[in-house]
């Protein structure tokens, strides 16, 4: 795999361009091109898709996405040291790779992309969760992307995919699964990276839903979930007391025991409670 695209092995690229990973940028370069190919394939058939990649670094995953047939790849890279290496990949795949230098948190990527769009990235650890939340909470739904195939620290991946009753279940689980289907598809050991991180990484596959899993007002649901998990050790009748003076009655009307704790309530239950709150406020039917 190292030279299947006619480009040098990644270690040679890194040495030639002096691309030592920087902790300040959350960089951990994935060196094994067989692994990057597996990640690219997890995103499905890319031949009719534009692909957004954030934090390509020396371009291991970029090469895999292009080799697997992506129609076009938009790579957003904050580190200018990586641009010459990415330019070599662009020359190998004329017209199929656009590299934008800048902060992915500040760039309107949609202007560069043509639907359908899939996001595939080994996200920098220091911005990964924030980027996910932004992609899950656009101004209107559905978003610009069809699917997200993203690498996170395993702990974050577990929070994204957790089910009720588990310690990892919380706000990020609900935020993701209310809007999308999420599952862990790969684990990657620290030794696959340069430098090796202290934790195992996991790849999460997230496919958007055309409509939310259960009906609820987004602002109310967000407030309910934040209050519930902000004091997750408390019973809901205590942690949600500030939302309504008769919260126990509303909990019961939503099919939730007032003595229950947040981690044991399903997404359906939180949505039912949100609707009950909306109705109690005189804004629902």
Q: What class do helices, strands and sheet pairing give?
A: alpha/beta
Shape: elongated
Q: Strand sequence of the main sheet, in spatial order?
A: 4-3-2-5-6-9-7
What CATH calls the topology of the largest domain is: Rossmann fold
Count of alpha and pi helical runs = 11
Helix content: 25-40%
Q: What's the count of strands?
A: 9
Name the poorly predicted regions.
Answer: none
Sketch the topology as an H/E string, one letter per element.
HEHEHEHEEHEHHEEEHHHH
- CA(first)-CA(last) distance: 59 Å
The overall average pLDDT, rounded, is: 93
CATH architecture of the largest domain: 3-Layer(aba) Sandwich
CATH homologous superfamily annotation of the largest domain: Vaccinia Virus protein VP39
Q: Supply the CATH class of the largest domain.
A: Alpha Beta
Q: Number of domains in the coordinates?
A: 2
Reported for the largest beta sheet, the result is: 7 strands, mixed
């Amino acid at each position: 795999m190292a030279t299947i695209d006619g480009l040098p092995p990644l270690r040679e690229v890194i040495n030639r361009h002096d691309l030592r990973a920087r902790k300040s940028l959350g960089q951990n370069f994935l060196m094994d091109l067989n692994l990057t190919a597996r990640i690219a394939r997890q995103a499905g058939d890319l031949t009719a898709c534009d692909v957004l990649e954030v934090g390509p670094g020396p371009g291991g995953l970029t090469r895999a996405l292009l080799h697997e047939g992506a129609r076009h790849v938009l790579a957003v890279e904050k580190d200018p040291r990586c641009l010459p290496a990415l330019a070599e990949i662009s020359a190998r795949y004329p017209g199929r790779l656009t590299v934008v230098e800048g902060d992915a948190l500040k760039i309107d990527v949609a202007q560069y992309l043509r639907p359908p769009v899939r996001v595939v990235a080994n996200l920098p650890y220091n911005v990964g969760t924030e980027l996910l939340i932004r992609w899950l909470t656009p101004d209107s739904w559905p978003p610009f992307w069809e699917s997200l195939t993203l690498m996170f620290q395993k702990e974050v991946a577990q929070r994204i995919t957790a089910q009720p009753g588990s310690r990892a279940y919380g706000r990020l689980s609900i935020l993701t699964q209310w809007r999308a289907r999420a599952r862990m598809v790969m684990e990657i050991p620290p030794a696959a990276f340069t430098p090796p991180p202290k934790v195992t990484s996991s790849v999460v596959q997230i496919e958007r839903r055309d409509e939310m899993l259960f009906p609820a007002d987004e602002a109310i649901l967000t407030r309910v979930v934040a209050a519930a998990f902000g004091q997750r050790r408390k019973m809901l009748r205590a942690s949600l007391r500030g939302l309504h003076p008769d919260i126990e009655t509303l909990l019961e009307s939503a099919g939730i025991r007032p003595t229950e704790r947040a981690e044991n309530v399903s997404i359906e239950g939180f949505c039912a409670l949100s609707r009950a709150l909306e109705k109690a406020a005189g804004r629902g039917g």
